[in-house]
Amino acid sequence: MDIVIRQAEPHEYAALGDITAQAYLRDGLLDFGESDEYLGELKDVAKRAAAAEVLVALENGRLLGGVTFVPSGGPMADIAAPGEAEIRMLAVARGARGRGAGEALVRACTERARAVDGCVRIVLSTQRTMHAAHRIYERLGFVRTPERDWNPLPHLDDITLLTYQLTL
Q1: Could you tell me which of 34, 18, 16, 13 has the C-alpha nearest to residue 156?
Q2: CA distance linking residue 19 with residue 152, whole number of Å
Q3: Which of 4, 14, 64, 162 lies most in the core, judged by the most C-beta atoms within 10 Å?
Q4: Of 58, 60, 76, which is closest to residue 19 (Cα–Cα)?
Q5: pLDDT tens, N- to C-terminus, the chain (168 residues)
Q6: How many Å apart are CA 7 and CA 168, to the nearest integer?
Q7: Strands 121-126 and 84-92
């Protein structure tokens, strides 16, 4: 498979928003109270692209998935500290999974982080049930950082996100 990774173009935002939302919905990852609000965030690629770098994976011009790369100090960062970049909202269309698109997107984020002056690591948050994503991160050298695990909805006890980091 020849996967191309590049910056998302405005005409792709709606399709990528749908892929991202469907990936979270179909995997049962939006079963908490504020899911509708977060679903809107997942779909709003234009908002993400205005504050960070949104990358897409394409095969023969077909959109397979995407990811948001937040350089050091970017406004879209959830957990990144100074000197850290962050990966957010990695999603691959169900029919395109298992073919390398997710890994190619994570590799592209890692390359971008290495190119950011002063960036010493890349971090990310993931849900406990995202096992395929965990395998990608671990295969690429990311390690779990349980001391950074966090809950984006503190009023709900069961939404703790796992964190990973890769030292560059």
Answers
A1: 34
A2: 22
A3: 64
A4: 58
A5: 599 999 999 999 999 999 998 887 765 555 544 445 677 888 999 999 999 999 999 999 999 999 999 998 788 999 999 999 999 999 999 999 989 999 999 999 999 999 999 999 999 999 888 888 999 999 999 999 999 999 887 666 667 889 999 999
A6: 22
A7: parallel
Using left for φ > 0, alpha for ψ between -120 and 50, and beta otherwise, residue 61 falls in left
User: CB-side exposure of 61: number of CA atoms within 13 Å?
Assistant: 1
Dihedral sign computed on CA atoms, order 75, 93, 124, 139: negative
| Phi/psi of residue 63, nearest 5 degrees | -70, 120
Structure token pair of residue 48 = 């993400």
- Residues 6 or more apart from 21 whose CB is under 8 A from it? 39, 42, 43
